[in-house]
Predict the structure.
Amino acid sequence: MRHLLDIRDLSLEEIDQLLDRAEDIIENPKKYSECMHGKKLATLFFEPSTRTRLSFEAAMMELGGNVLGFSEAKSSSAAKGESVADTVRTVSCYADIIAMRHPREGAPTAAAQVCPVPIINAGDGGHNHPTQTLTDLLTIRREKGRLNQLVIGFCGDLKFGRTVHSLIHAMMRYEDIRFVFISPKELRVPDYVLETLQKHGIGYTEVEKLEDVIGTLDVLYMTRVQRERFFNEEEYLRLKDSYVLDLEKMELARKDLAVLHPLPRVNEISVKVDSDPRACYFRQVLYGKFVREALLMKLLEVEV
Ligand code: NCD
């Protein structure tokens, strides 16, 4: 039995297979529409979510399976003081697979120790978010036609942004990738992530101004400042509008740039950018559902 707790739990070959499967589902949805008949997915969300939870649920439904779960800690027995371990032990009696989001780093990993069914980390605090990374990889592959030979810029809250950490860990394994990190000093990529890049001799630069580097990028990954992870509101208010991608900045970018964002967006991308063909973030939402279908099939060892 396999869990997905960290994107590095998957080999590059397995990631390729998942992306290929997702593309086959896009092309031939009917072929897959009954393959999860009789299977149940539980979504245990101790933190807010729109895309991740609903795309998991839509994915299971499109494969002919069923879903159950909760979308906030206060409607579960966590509110009475139940441990995460006891919650997943319980839910494993009702469901074949669990997708879990939790504000505490490592909570899904701890839960996996006692859980007899596969657990998928759907975001743990400011740490990891591997299924968003699968979504991002499928988006980059479809938009750019490759996952190697890319200059990829990450902009915004690179400290608390879990999608950033997971995507860096995935992209660093492809050939000829260069990273450009654009953030205020206070929101830099954590040292443990930078150390992994250094250890593998992978090039990166850190800058504060998006205008200075946007013209060099193949991919720009925008992120929201993660208000819920700040210790004080004043600091959040000071940093929240550090970056706004607008039409003026898009003028400086390459004609074949791909702009991604895991969403939700707050202010960091002007809505005027949405109609630019380089804005990929709503296509990215759609790809997230297909890649989660592929992942559910893999972890439940379902074939068609
Ligand atoms: C992200 C998350 O939850 O980490 N959202 C998502 O899953 N698509 C990004 C965010 O909340 O900023």
User: Anything to note?
Assistant: The mean pLDDT is 97. The two ends are 19 Å apart (CA to CA).
